[in-house]
């Protein structure tokens, strides 16, 4: 456990203040930079890269521009939502997200025009704003900025499809009192590689929900980060992932409680089946010295369906103050619960159907949180197909 002390002139002396120092006191979240050269090519011994199969990234960490026809963005948004573009250095681009690894720095540097989705203050958007990222092969980069004004409400669906090697960033500004939900679906073709960073700044008394669903791709690695712009903000980070034989799905989360009276809850669930299926979940919550009276909890659960699959789960808490309401974490990885199977079979359900019911129940709560019926139905069907492939 480390302690970060701000200079005397920067130390806040009023309740409700936000940590002013830019230095991040976390061993799992190094200081960010927009300069690609500040992020050396990893060798696998670095803490933030030690789980990632670097040899399978197909050039994702080489600085390359987006190829012709490599990616297409389709946006469906109601009239009250403004859709435009932002050049590098044009606010609010770069005001929230500072690249924390080489992939994010490349995505930022090689995206000339970021997609800017702006929701004006006090506007309630009834239908989801849908952004479909359709990759057509080759190398591509991207950057999306969701800018939500005070007391507005919106849901963004970020849907990834197709094939190729894609590095991308998502930057979310959550205005004071706003309610924002982001659903990011990784439904890539089997050979795709996707490295991404999602960063949110949650305003005073605002609510932010970030939901990740990863099913497709050869290698998918997402960094999902949150910090606070004022007191009273809340963040809920949910995730669902299902790895098949040979897939590598990696999710890394960082919640920076840099303001008092804030809240966070992290709940990720994963299933694995097939030889060399691999999932990685690394959760880190930093509670700074100033972040008094916060509440946080993170949990990761993994269900291993067959032999030959491996799940790594690393929860972390870095606490710099004892003046908190609650803080905890948990992690569990295991096979089917024999008692559940016995209970179902004792009532005339076959073993095969019983196993499917257990898996459905395992994911049911997170699927319900998605809130977009068409997406929920599509993902349920995808999970059913995977279970049928190996006769689970």
Automatic annotation (TrEMBL):
Provide the GO biological process annotations.
Answer: iron-sulfur cluster assembly
Q: Which InterPro entries match?
A: Fe-S_cluster_assembly_SufBD, SUF_FeS_clus_asmbl_SufBD_core, SUF_FeS_clus_asmbl_SufBD_sf, SUF_FeS_clus_asmbl_SufD
Please list the coiled coil stretches.
none
Where does the SUF system FeS cluster assembly SufBD core domain lie? Answer: 137-362
| Region of interest (Disordered), residue spans | 1-21
Q: Which family does it belong to?
A: Belongs to the iron-sulfur cluster assembly SufBD family.
Protein name stated in the entry:
Fe-S cluster assembly protein SufD
